[in-house]
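Q: Structure tokens for this one, please.
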Amino acid sequence: MVIYILTSGVYSDYQIEGVYSTKEIAEQQKALLLWKNENDDSIQIEEYELDKPLAYVRGLEVGMTREGEAYMVRKAIFNLSEGKPKFELLFNRKEVLLINKVHTEERERAIKVTNALRIMLLANDMFHAEGEKMTCPLCSGTGLEGENLCPGCKGHGKVPVKLPFDS
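A: Here is the predicted structure, written as tokens:
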């Protein structure tokens, strides 16, 4: 059985407006919301199979640069019995690349979710790959702590990245 979920908003504003047993009822409710908010293109009807086994799900894998270019979007299947799909940061000798696995088949949504993750990683100074050099957080790259060499970077101003979410 398929259920129809009427949603609106994006990111933190995303919400479920209603859940319906038929597409016709969902379309009627969507039309009502659009009458009130005619320019709101975030109002969507999502279809979900009820009681669908969750062992494997379809989704998209998005590759994104630090600057926000989505250079790769490809289909992927995730095994949820292994836990929630995770992201990776890879260093390809030129730049750090974000690889994110998103549980959606909508290309635009997968890119938006990955971009939101990219922004969060940048804001928290975590967009680094294991082994890449980053500015020392103790001395802010000066290499000094007072008149002494910084104990974090030993005077170099840069430290290799060891990400807190690495296993």
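A few notes: The longest strand covers residues 56-65. The longest helix spans residues 107-123.
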